[in-house]
Amino acid sequence: MAKKGQKFRVYDLEFKNKVLKEYQEGASAGYLSQKYDIPTGTIFTWTTIIKKRGALGIVKKGRPTIIQEKDYKERYEILKKYQDFLVTQEPKKR
């Protein structure tokens, strides 16, 4: 968990690919950690991302920037149908 005021390092894609290439060729994570001054957990995280997504930098984290909403008229029609449904259900409750 991140601590208050903690600064995170940002690595460019070329550097990540360089480190991972060496890791896949047989270099240990500890050796690469000392050589490039990065945590071993970071190397393992990058390898996990490659296993899941196929490559680094393909999908960004977080919510998608484009929100696909139904247009106003369609949303209005759905609401009307729901209100009509509620009106028909009201007498059955009593």
Account of the protein in words:
- With 94 residues, the chain is mainly α.
- It has one domain.
- It contains 4 helices and no strands.
- The longest helix has 22 residues.
- The mean pLDDT is 84.
Determine the strand fraction and express it as a percent band: under 5%
How many structurally independent domains?
A: 1
Helical residue percent band:
55-70%
How many strands, what sense, and barrel or not for the largest sheet?
Answer: none
Number of strands: 0
Distance between the termini: 53 Å
Q: What is the radius of gyration?
A: 25 Å
User: What is the molecular shape?
Assistant: elongated
Number of DSSP helical runs: 4
Low-confidence regions: none
Query: How are helices and strands ordered from N to C?
Result: HHHH
Mean pLDDT: 84
Given helix and strand content, the structural type is mainly alpha
TL;DR?
The protein has 94 residues and is an all-alpha fold. It contains 4 helices and no strands. The protein is elongated, with a radius of gyration of 25 Å.
